[in-house]
Amino acid sequence: MARLxxxxxxxxxxxxxxxxxxxHFVPKCLWDKELPKEIVTVPAHEECNRKYSGDNxxxxxxxxxxxxxxxxxxxxxxxxGTIRRKLRRxxxxxxxxxxxxxxxxxxxxxxxxxxxxxxxxxNWSRIETVLKNVMKGLxxxxxxxxxxxxxxxxxxxxxxxxxxxxxxxxxNAMCPWMGFGDDVFxxxxxxxxxxxxxxxxxxFYRSELFYGQGVLAEPVR
Length: 221
What we know:
The chain is built from seven helices and nine strands, in the order ββααααββαβααββββ. The protein starts with 19 loop residues before the first strand and ends in a 5-residue tail after the last strand. The protein is α+β, with helices and mostly antiparallel strands.
């Protein structure tokens, strides 16, 4: 029996388009050293793996320097270890990540000015790339086949309960929180029975929460 070709989870092309490997769809750089035993890998081209490594590192760095994640033990290990070494050996790369840092006004939820504080504008296109790859990996892991290339993925940052209320129906249908045995990454997912829709919540370091949606485009008639 002929061997079925392996398909790259990220680009959707098979092993005829390049050498394949196993890749962590949740970036392994989110951990300082030891990875959780239950972490999952998916088939991917080595070239795709290299292509996204810079975005994965950027994602880790911006989470690590955010106030929301600063309390997490793994972030503290990263700041003492991996990121400290990066500052020492590749200072320019880290400063490039901070290029959009500055000071700006802070307001309460009622619009009251609270003063100025350090702020950091994320490069959202790079964040999107990482989160969409996580969604592709989740789809493959749970559905046992690659996410259809025709499916349009969108992602957003969940900042408060009001953001969750807007997607309440999808959230109520999601599975309980699951992950790799620790709380660096967690997710809740629901797939429509027709396979045309996917909704998920992705949480990092117990603090930063993102919402993802996948919609399969209807064929043109």
